[in-house]
Amino acid sequence: MSQKEHIEREEKLTGEGIAIRHPVFFWFENLWYHYKWTILIVAFFLFLAIVCFAQCATTPHKDVYITFSGSHTMTTEEHQAIERVLGEVSKGAFAENPPAVGVTSYPFYTEDELRALYTDPETGDFNGSAFHTAKGQNMNRLEELSSYMMTGECSIWLVNTSVYEAQHMSEKLAVPLAESFETIPAGAYDEYAIRLGDTAIYQYYEALQVLPADTLIVFTRSYFMGASSDEKTYEQFKTLYRAIVEFEAP
Known about the structure:
The chain is 52% helix and 9% strand. It has helices spanning 3-15, 23-58, 76-93, 111-117, 128-149, 161-166, 169-172, 177-180, 200-204, 231-245, and strands at 64-69, 101-105, 156-159, 193-195, 216-219. β1, α3 (76-93) and β2 form a beta-alpha-beta unit. α3 (76-93) crosses α10. The protein is globular and about 75 Å long.
């Protein structure tokens, strides 16, 4: 068949409604058919790497991080004050080379707490528009927290009960208190978490009291990636966790 006849044949087929697909389309279709799960898995870990990189790029480097997710939005001054407190605890817990402690924050409010925030206490007027916007942002932060948990960058968490339950922390990565302490500390919420408000460190340091007293302290197992995957760093997390829970006022 001559080139002219070939072109006329394609034009005729196209005219009859038969689609002529580019060879590249067939290549992608074949690739997806044979390697669909490989592509999805690679995409998943690429997403985690991007989240981890973004977190590191926007936060000054610290040796270990403690993450807060509860019904309070820290000011810059509060954030810095809490980091100073944890830095003092770190210095007391390590005889040499105490790790620098950073704090990451993902504020999360219950729906009732959000409604209260957007209701005028004097008139009772409710700002529905602002409430729904805040509700969407609230859920986005919970999703961001969930992604961050999967990076393995943190092992000490300060969370409210809503986050604790929503993330199924006791069912996934939380370390039982019995594995960390010979005697279960006072203020245990369950076999995995401790109420921050019942600890001596909370009662001693005013800087920590901006956080709700019913915030839970949770220690999670090392992960296969991120800072907690490093044995030395994970031991630092563990030592710092015990120092926070077992803190005694001077």
